[in-house]
Amino acid sequence: MNYYLDVIKRYADFQGRARRQEYWMFLLWNIPIVIVLTILDYALGSYPVITWIYTLAVFLPSLGVSVRRLHDTGKSGWWYLVSLIPFIGFIWMIILMATEGDAGPNAYGPSPKQIAA
């Protein structure tokens, strides 16, 4: 849960680098929250209202952690636009997000693994 809250605290921070663990733990918490909110929407008969509000609220933190994750692999945040390519972009983005980051410092800052250690 700490990883999720750390991403939320860095709301619109696109600077620096994010470890794989930070990105995937945020995603691991975000998906069940969306599922629960969707079920709640249907139970209350409000269809997608609560889910859309939540999705809009976490859009910038989600984008921020994705850009920082790309920075960790030495790529610009603009690479996120690859995800807009139908089907192939989604697969490519999963591969990029699962790729190990640069071991040492790169153009986007020091390695987050070295900072955490």
Automatic annotation (TrEMBL):
The keyword Coiled coil does not apply. GO terms for cellular component: plasma membrane. The keyword Membrane applies. It comes from the Bacteria. Coiled coil: none annotated. Keywords: Membrane, Transmembrane, Transmembrane helix. Pfam families: DUF805. The chain crosses the membrane at residues 23-43, 49-67, 79-98. InterPro entries: DUF805. This is Membrane protein. It comes from Streptomyces katrae. The lineage of its organism: Bacteria, Bacillati, Actinomycetota, Actinomycetes, Kitasatosporales.
